[in-house]
Every structure is written in structure tokens, then in C-alpha cells.
Design brief:
seven-stranded antiparallel β-sheet, three-stranded antiparallel β-sheet, globular
């Protein structure tokens, strides 16, 4: 998975390190509890490679990110903003929290926020902001993902969905959902490899 998953708790290799905030990792490690606070740290080649601070709202509907960031050796900037969280019923019962993209014009529901410039934004926003060409690998992967998503979800929002298309067999849905996830991971890996060249430090 990369990202936060390769913190000290994990022995996974971190060669494709992404600067990203993954709500699945936070959920798994119990970091989404009301009022919870601490740091989220990246590593690269086993060495520390930046961190940010997080604070969960007392009603667990928001997450505040605080960090210092600099691009291309420019001056450090202090950043602080709140990411809304949305709790929705998950596919197999229970409820699950998602981020709302902090880009005001987007606000899409998502599970991963990627470092882009000095902010963390959703995959779709990276797609708009990153100057990749049409026919480029990133766009192709995103397009393939969109096609599958729009077919298998009733409420596909461009990057995620949670209601299975009516009349679709669960077996078909599961298979297609796995295909979607494979493209998601491939996109993330490619994007992060490119993003490294932007040399954003935390
Ligand atoms: Zn977005």
C-alpha cells in the first residue's frame, strides 16, 4: 500500500514512498477516535522523511492537519487546515469514515489525500493539477478506473462510490472492484514516483 503503511509498525519495503494521508491506515491503527492527536510520519529507505501533525475533532467529523512544508528549497511555510470527514454505511455493514477533499471546489469523498504542492488533495484534483498529457499513463489509468466505477456503482462520484449498481451480481461486482483497486494502486505508484521530482519536503 505504501504511504503511512510503511511506518515503524510495518516491515513493508518503502521504495515507492508516497507523501500521502491514507484514512485506511489511520482507521486500522485507531487514529480516528474523537480528540485523537499525534504525528503521521513517512520514511524512505528506512530513514525519516517528513511528518505532519493531526488532531481529530471532538465529534470525529473533522481532522485538522498542521505541518511545515517547502518546495524546491524555498522557505518553509506553516500550514493548518481542517479536512471534513464523512461517515457512511459501508458495503458490508457498519460505518466507515472518508475524507472530503480539502479543495473547496472539489470536496469529493476519498480515502487517500496526496501531497500536491503545499496541500493534500484527492486523486481527481491531482489529475487536474498535474500537467500530464492526454494519453499519458496517469490519465489512462484514471480513465480506466472511471469507466469501471461508473459501471459498478450507482453513486459513482468520479473517484469513489458505495452503492452497487442494481441488478449486478455480487460476484461480478467483487471482480470489477478488484480491477478498480489495481488501477488505483498503479495510479498512486506512478503519481508518487513523479511527485518525488517536485521535491516537496515536510
Ligand atoms: Zn479533490
Amino acid at each position: 500500500m505504501g504511504g503511512w503503511g510503511s511506518g515503524p509498525q510495518s516491515s513493508k519495503p518503502d521504495t515507492s514512498q508516497a507523501k500521502r494521508v491514507d484514512i485506511r491506515y489511520m482507521r486500522k491503527h485507531g487514529l480516528l477516535l474523537p480528540g485523537s492527536m499525534g504525528s503521521l510520519r513517512w520514511t524512505r529507505g528506512g530513514e525519516p522523511n517528513g511528518y505532519i501533525w493531526y488532531t481529530m475533532g471532538l465529534d470525529a467529523t473533522s481532522l485538522t492537519l498542521d505541518y511545515k512544508v517547502r518546495q524546491h528549497g524555498e522557505d518553509w511555510q506553516s500550514m493548518s487546515y481542517t479536512v471534513s470527514l464523512e461517515s457512511i454505511p459501508c458495503r458490508y455493514g457498519g460505518k466507515r469514515q472518508y475524507f472530503r477533499c480539502p479543495n473547496f471546489y472539489c470536496s469529493r469523498r476519498c480515502e487517500v489525500l496526496y501531497s500536491y504542492g503545499v496541500y493534500f488533495v484527492c486523486q481527481q484534483c491531482c489529475g487536474y493539477l498535474y500537467p500530464s498529457q492526454k494519453g499519458d499513463r496517469l490519465n489512462k489509468l484514471l480513465e480506466a478506473k472511471r469507466k469501471i466505477g461508473a459501471r459498478i456503482f450507482e453513486d459513482w462520484n468520479g473517484s469513489d462510490g458505495w452503492r452497487k449498481t442494481k441488478g449486478m451480481h455480487w460476484r461480478t461486482f467483487e471482480r470489477e472492484y478488484r480491477r478498480l483497486q489495481i488501477r488505483e494502486e498503479a495510479w498512486s505508484k506512478t503519481f508518487c514516483e513523479r511527485a518525488k521530482a517536485l521535491r516537496v519536503e515536510y
